[in-house]
Structure formats: C-alpha cells, structure tokens
C-alpha cells in the first residue's frame, strides 16, 4: 500500500511545528530562570551568515505551508517575518497549524505527479510532487527544526534528541 502525500506532509509538518512550539516553551522558561532577556534567544544564531532562531521558525512555517500551496494549487496565508517574542513565534506556529487543519487528504490525492517548478535566485528546477516533497521540502523543513535545536543548545538550553523527535504515546 502506498503512503499518501497527505500522510507524508500534513502530520509531519504538524509534528515538527509542535516540536518548535515545545522549544519555545523551554526557551521562555530558560530565559526566565537564567535571567536572560528573551530577545537574546529570539535573535541568537549559530553563525553570522545564518538566520536567527526567529528566522528558523519563520522558514519552517513558510517551507511547510508553501509546499502545500504548491502541491494543491491554492493560495496560502502570508505572514510577515516580524516576530520578535516567543509569544509571537508561537502564534505564527498556531496560525500555520490552523492552516493545515483546513487541508483534507483528498486535496493532496494525485499531487505526487503534479509538476512543481521552483524559480528562486539560487534554485531553478522542476520536480514531480513526490520528489519535491521528499527531496526538497522535508529536508529543508527538518533543517530549520534542527538548526533551531542547535541554537538553543548553544545557548545552554537542556534540549536533547527526545525533544527533537517530539512526543510519543500521547
């Protein structure tokens, strides 16, 4: 039995966003306990040429919702990248998750063969829908989650592999 494009995308995105929301809760608690101004963590980055924590969450949100828009052929909600607090970042995650709640499995039926063309300054290519999801979108989505994890670890947060993998058995 083939795995559906829906199962490969929406639940995966929802879980990853849930992980990011958990990171934000931990970051908020850490900032309060350590007396660190929250904006220090929101703007923290691993390297000067990489996006800060806020940017990692914004890109995870954009990567996932834009992928669904391209696959299904619908307009997706646009969010300005202006979040500067943990609460604003959590709200962006909630808005992204709410968008995913509107997508049905039937909308993604057959999108594995849909042609998806990317034309960015650094990438110009065409994929089939399944190639796009599995070789571009999911690695990109997980990159931003892993980078958010690394930023928080670098700043002393007690986050580990189980935080990254997310909750099981709930």
TrEMBL record:
Top-level lineage group: Bacteria
Gene3D superfamilies per UniProt: dinb family like domain
Pfam families xrefs: DUF1993
Coiled coil regions in record: none
Protein name, UniProt field: DUF1993 domain-containing protein
UniProt source species: Silvimonas amylolytica
């Amino acid at each position: 039995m083939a795995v559906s494009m829906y199962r490969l995308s929406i639940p995966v995105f929802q879980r990853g966003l849930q992980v990011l929301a958990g990171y934000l809760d931990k970051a908020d608690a850490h900032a309060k306990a350590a007396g660190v101004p929250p904006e220090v963590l929101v703007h923290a980055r691993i390297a000067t040429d990489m996006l800060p924590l806020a940017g990692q969450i914004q890109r995870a949100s954009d990567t996932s919702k834009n992928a669904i828009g391209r696959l299904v052929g619908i307009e997706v909600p646009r969010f300005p990248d202006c979040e500067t607090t943990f609460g604003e970042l959590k709200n962006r995650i909630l808005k992204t998750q709410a968008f995913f709640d509107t997508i049905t499995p039937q909308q993604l039926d057959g999108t594995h063969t849909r042609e998806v063309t990317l034309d960015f300054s650094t990438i110009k290519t065409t994929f089939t829908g399944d190639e796009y999801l599995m070789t571009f979108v999911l690695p990109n989505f997980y990159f931003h989650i892993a980078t958010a994890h690394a930023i928080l670890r670098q700043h002393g947060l007690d986050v580990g592999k189980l935080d990254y993998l997310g909750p099981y058995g709930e």
